[in-house]
Write a structure and sequence with these properties.
By secondary structure, the protein is an alpha/beta fold. It is built from 20 helices and 17 strands. Strand 1 and strand 2 form a beta hairpin.
Length: 497
Amino acid sequence: MALSVEKTICGREYKVKDMSQATVGRDEIEFAEGKMPGLMACRSELGSQPFKGARITGCLPMISGTGVFIKTLIILGAEVRWCSSNRVPTQDHAAAAISSDSAAVFAWNGETLQEHWWCVQQALDWGPGGGPDLIVDDGGAAVKLIQEGVKAEKVYEKTGKLPDPASTDDAEFQILLTIIRDGLKTDPKRYHKMKGRLVGVSEETTTGVKRLYQMQANGTLSFSAINVGDSITKSKFDKSYGCRHSLPDSLTVATSFKIADKLAVVCGYGDVGKDCAAALKQAGVRVVVTEINCFRAIQAHQEGYCILTLDDVVSKADIFVTTTGSEGIIMVHHMKEMKNNAIVCNMSHCDREISILELEQFPGVKHISIRSQTDKWPQTDKWLFPSTKSGIIVLAEGRRLSLGCATAPREFMVMSCSFTNHLIAQLELWETAATSKYKEEVYFLPKHLDEKVAALHLGEIGAKLTAVAKNTGNFLGRIWEAAGHPAVSSICLRGRM
């Protein structure tokens, strides 16, 4: 696809695959609104345009649920530019609908790496007045482009030296450096202006949050950031309830295989791994867990799982699922040892748990696209090794499986709570921008706001909370005060114990 910005009749910039799909996209977004009660409640409860004057850039998968989120931000007064944080899951009809009606969208299904980073650049480009006021990030791509851009501009100002894409073997980083290098020739202060205008970021992924904490530690974090990924209404609902539904769903949709009675390896037994293992077990799959942490290993044992190393089972298992949030968990030498048609997939936010680059560069390996990525089908590929004449099946290019292959994460409670978390965090950053409440650090979403996100969903499920009786609250408070926690009685009354 030619990388050129297009404009609607009213002058709004965009780049999507097919604007003729906008009508279908509108219908699906309207349907999705019924599954997003948190966002719908925000529209009616947050007053008249609290985001008025705010420029918001989003870098988060462009699907129908995201369309509801973008529409909500605009109804509440924001201007929005959007790209997808993941090259796999974009729904072209949703991208067409939002770009036609509401916001500048740069996203299409099946983007190449170069196209992906071009879209990130466009979403951050608000013209000569600088960049966005706020960023909704998923994986830290938007923040990374600004950070690397500022770094390159400082070097260019001092030495006149441009970034050299040949200085790295990382194909993705080469593209990023090329974008920054070319931009320096036209505006050597572009990313400094973006950094100067940026108020704050809300980030939901483990990978993105880690990057923010690294920036804080080395003194390069120049804005406030809220880690919504570890809020209860995000981490518990997404990592637990989302994985519970989306893993079996993804495996079935992507492969059409029957997974019952198969042997699966779940790499990691953290929050994601626990529920992936449980979901597979419930579906009749025999599960082995690999773990580096002795406490989690005991937890897995108590749940009835075998705890072995990957080398112990690499040639025997039918399904391999990475969930650690780290890099280099399944390498090419593991893949060579796997049985024919073994399924390899990733359920964490880190795209490098499975060494796809190493696989692509393996001498003589043959790549067969079983199903190309479309709105209807997820990406399913087979890789054949020349020495064994057998091969493995890789799902969603090793990226997060639930985004690339599942339908379940788009349902109520998971996506609704995630988007409502972001919206509440963005509003908190915007409304406190003129104060010193948030410094250039990473914060958790305040507990009372986390509770607000949950409360916004209670009406939809018909839930009625039991009020804590005064005597009960006083009793609980006395117990905690006796233990040396004098301020806990109010916490107990708010249900935080």
